[in-house]
TrEMBL record:
Species the sequence originates in: marine sediment metagenome
A GO biological process held by the record: DNA replication, synthesis of primer
InterPro entries per UniProt: DNA_primase_S
Entry's family note: Belongs to the eukaryotic-type primase small subunit family.
Gene3D superfamilies documented for this protein: DNA primase, PRIM domain
PANTHER family with a match to the protein in the record: DNA PRIMASE SMALL SUBUNIT
One function term, GO molecular function aspect: DNA-directed RNA polymerase activity
Name of the protein in question: DNA primase
Amino acid sequence: MLLINKISYFNYCFKDYLIFNSKNKGSFSKSINRAIYESNKRGRLPIFSKDVKFSGVLATSAPKGAKIFIVSSYASLWEKYIRMEPNQRCIYEILLHEYPCHLYIDIDMNREINSKIDKNMEKKLEDEFLEECTSLLLELGATNSKDSIKILTLDSSKGKKLSKHFLFPIDGVRFKNNYHCGAFVRRIRNRFEIKYGTDYEKNRFFLKKEQKGKKKEDQGKTFQIFDFYADLAVYTCRRNWRIYGSSKGDENRPLYLSGEDNTKTRLNQDNFLACMIQRIDPSESENINLFECLEMNETEPYSTNNTSFMNTRDDIPLKSDNSELKHYYETYFPFDDIYKLFGQNNTREFFFSNKDNGIWKKYFFKSVDEFKNKILKTVPSTIHLGPFVDGKKQKELVFDIDLNDYRNVRTCCGDSKKACEKCWKYAQFGILVLDRFLRNYGFENILFFFSGMKGFHCWVLDEKAKKLSNKAREALVKDLQLDNLQFNIIGKKRKYVSDIVKNGFDYKKVIIEQNLKNEFDNACNKFGLELAICYFFWPKIDKEVTTNITHAIKIPYIKHPITGNPSKMIKNDASDNPFCYSSSDTSLSENIKEFSNVINT
């Protein structure tokens, strides 16, 4: 954690390393390393930078992008900052990837080349984007309360330039580091790709941007590309992030909170502190929860530069050098059965992704041979399904349960990437409840699949399930979900619990294995046995997966990119424990054969 409550009048500028050329990474690295050394010596004071052009020192001979570095307490920086002339305020917070931070997002748009987007459309895009971010924060469990999410909008837009920063302070929560912020924004990008498609000329959240040619033959040329609404290049190690009230270089576009008059506004110290990305208030420093947002394929986040998307489907190839994964596809993957179950003659969206670069690409397949050939050629790390796209969108009804959501009632495994045998009882209870619940609604074609890591998917393949609207799916989830201990078990839900226990579900053994006897006994005394069982074992559903027809879901028998375990079918009576995973060829082949028999009968 950053120690930010140390107040000193330390204001150290590195005159020995005053100027660095932005093209000379060695010079920059040397300067920032010295800054970190001096910061650590003084109790880990924050680090800032300032554009040399406005530093008053060697400004006339400074190369473009040159900076000095400042190590200072927030209080000391504020005292100097408030006395600067407005055109001298060109200060940046150095974001160190070793420390937690608020979620931050950078929005830039050239209004001149995006002339079709007027002020009203700018507002609509912003509102929809922020709503999507809020929804994803809640879905991923960064917080349980929408009211705890505050959004600060800083605006330095002027003329043909739209430029905004969004900052998401969440009460008592910080992202683990800025790489995790980048993973979050890549998830947001993917949601808008699924929602509006990957024809980026038609996707409202991909804007025209100018890019200089990188190839030798293109040097000096400028190209127009389509790029995502949010800048993905700002989640790198030791990032310079412009602070409240500052302009960039000589642009004279100070960054103020939305609604402030940047021609008259007097700097506000509370706003100055609130808009710091890595600042932790002393009053909350002991009660901070670190939120981890993994990549979409559940790998660790990474530092990345922005990836631009051209309006083609095959502009960036997936890697195909993973011989082990290719061997799995060639030897085991049930191409015919998967295509028969999910592919519909070029009307179904398949999303291929690669764990090394996070790229998602959409395909349609006219035949199983085309489906097979593309997989063997590109060797994707994961394959997800979108909806049918002929006419009204349709998709199977899918329920996703992840054992990571049982942390408050499960003591085994912790944050281990793999589940243990003890975890299975929670999944088992969830499978038994879901199967009974869905059959009570008249669904018959229900299959369960182990995810390969710490969860499972329930696929409802009945034709009437595919045609359910989002509202109908929401009604199903509402009927299934139980909210903590504030619910009443009546009718069929009470019967689910009693039937499962009578049929041999040994909840007492699980409670003892998890060292939760005292907690369980207290719940029984307060609410009764059936209610206590529900609180500890009732399935915890990822609502977004079920209710959003456009949400992509991983197909069965794909290898999990972290564990290497293939997804595989689970019996509806939950008699087989996939967490006691057998990786033998015979076991996997038998499971695939059983799957084939099920869907072909």
